[in-house]
Amino acid sequence: MEKKKPVQQFPLPPKKKNKKPQRGVRSWIKVVWVALAVVVLAIFGLFFSISQGFLGDMPDVKELENPDIYVASEIISSDGEVLGKFEKEKVIPVTYKDLPPYLVYALQAKEDERFKEHSGIDLKSVARAVRFGGRRGGGSTITQQLAKLLFTGSASRNKVERGFQKLREWVVAVSLEKRYTKEEIITLYFNKFDFLFNANGVEMASKVYFNKHTQELTLPESAMFVAMLENPRRNNPYRYPERAKERRDVVLRQMLDTGYLDQATYEQAVATPIKVDFHPIKNIEEG
Q: Of 176, 225, 268, 284, which residue is 20 to 30 A from 119 by alpha carbon distance?
């Protein structure tokens, strides 16, 4: 019998030792997770404190449902002519059906393109505002602007206080989105805004500036009111018609860019001059 040749054996490669992560790396991972947990808890605690009013009184959103309405007093001459009206903070609320479609479209195109998509806070707009320092528009949604109207007084000049004010607006905005439909939020916003000259709300503004009802507003007039939301004093068609037209045309351009207007309608609207039929309503305290 032939002897079997011994099988040649090759030495096995040495086993790789499992390198244990360095203590420094593991420590950093723990620090990151702890930091994230602290940030999440801090944000949750901050929003909870704001919602409970611990960091300042929160506005009562129920006040929007029952705005104060005062009855106007009229001075009538012997032949029956109305010589003047005297009112104090009069508000005539409108319903969503009273708002012309162009008025709603103009608001969404100018202030909040993703209004129907978010729940009160548009993170994309916030990120854009932070990145460009507000040069390409702010991060406030229509709902946040309504929340801002609920606060009395102007925005604080102190950066810290203004930061807390912005957080309170976020909390109120989320609360409004839970309580009201999108249509109701838009309606409340137009009913709450002060267009100057005692024109509280869009119905009073329609009478003061154009001597008509809200539902009778034209496209250029609707865009004009939305332009006034930015700054009712500087963009006022009665005081500064040239600047008002310039800002109105910006709104119309945004409506074109967002698909609410076609080119022909846009060109016709921007060619329309500002026509104000001014009928001021005197405050009773001014009489």
A: 225
Buried b (16+ CB within 10 A) or exposed e, 126-164: bebbeeeeeeeeebbbbbbbbbbbbbeeeeeeeeeeeeb
CA distances from 246 to 8, 128, 253 (A): 93, 25, 11
Residue 9: per-residue pLDDT: 59
5 or 218, which is more confident? 218
SS3 content of the chain, % helix, strand, coil (to 5): 50, 5, 45
61-113+182-286 topology per CATH = Penicillin binding protein transpeptidase fold (1.10.3810)
Could you give the CA distance from residue 35 to residue 41 in angstroms, rounded to a whole number?
10
For residue 5 the two structure tokens come to 């040749």
The C-alpha angle with vertex 108 and arms to 207 and 132, in degrees rounded to 5, equals 120
Q: Quick: pLDDT tens for 52-106.
A: 554 455 566 566 555 454 444 444 444 445 445 545 556 789 999 999 999 999 9
pTM for the predicted model, two decimal places: 0.71
- How many CA atoms are closer than 13 Å to the CA of 99, on its beta-carbon side? 25
Token pair 């068609």: residue? 237
pLDDT in tens, 166-199: 788 888 888 889 989 999 999 999 999 999 999 9
Q: 227 by DSSP, 3-state: which?
A: helix
Angle of the 142-149 helix axis to the 101-111 helix axis, nearest 10: 90
